[in-house]
Structure formats: structure tokens, C-alpha cells
Amino acid sequence: MSHDHATPGHHAAHAGEGGHAPGTFKGYMTGFILSVILTVIPFWLVMDGVLASSSATALAILLIGAVQMVVHMVYFLHMSPRSEGGWTLLALIFTVIIVAIALAGSLWVMYHLNVNMMPEHLHDMTSM
Fold first, then answer.
1. CA–CA distance from 60 to each of 51, 68, 96, 100 (Å)?
2. d(CA 94, CA 87)
3. Which is more confidently placed, 101 or 23?
4. What pLDDT, on the 0 to 100 scale, is given for residue 57?
5. Cβ atoms 88, 79 nearer than 8 A
6. Helices (H), the chain
7. 84's torsion region: left (phi>0), alpha (psi -120 to 50) or beta?
8. Residue 12 — pLDDT band, cuts 50, 70, 90?
């Protein structure tokens, strides 16, 4: 049995299946404006020295960067729990978990190699 995808009601029949929502001008402009604002804020934080410590500035920039990634995923990649039946969001969550495990494991191994493999006399020399 052959399915003709050129029939007029074909796309209308699949409209409620949770696919990607078509991008609207309003949606793209909202995403663009949020992206510009979330890009300007870190520049302002650094250039004017708004936060007292550099650690607080770095943490603020990282948090704003995470928010900007979410804005891009929602407004430009159209990721939501409804799109593709939730599989795109599930794939993203899986990817984030795997990357977090790989990064945490790498940092843990490098830290323990540094602590356990460095000769003791080098540790004594740095305290002089």
C-alpha cells in the first residue's frame, strides 16, 4: 500500500504528533533579544568591575552562559518536552550526563595523579 505524501491533509493529520513547532518571527526575535541581553551582561560585569571578586564574576558569567544555552535550545533549536515525542530532550539529558561524568572523572584522575605521583621534594620546594 502506497502512501501519497502530497495529499492536502497529510501535514494537517500529523500536526498534533508533537513535532517541532514552526518558528515564528516573534519567537525568533524574542530569542535574539534575550541572546543579546545575555551576551551584553557578562561584558558589562567584566568591563565595569561590578562584582568585587574575580571568582564571583567568573561564576556569574558561567551561570549566564548556561541560561543562554537554554535560550538557544528553546528559541532556535525548538527543544521542548513536546518536540519529537520528548526524544530530543531525552537525548540532550543523556548527553549532558555523559559529558558531566567524563569531565568529573578526568578531573578526579588528574587531581589524584598530581597528588600521588609528584615527588615529595617538589612539594617542599614550593613552600620555600
1. 9, 12, 20, 20
2. 10
3. 101
4. 95
5. yes
6. 10-13, 25-48, 54-75, 87-117, 120-126
7. left
8. very low
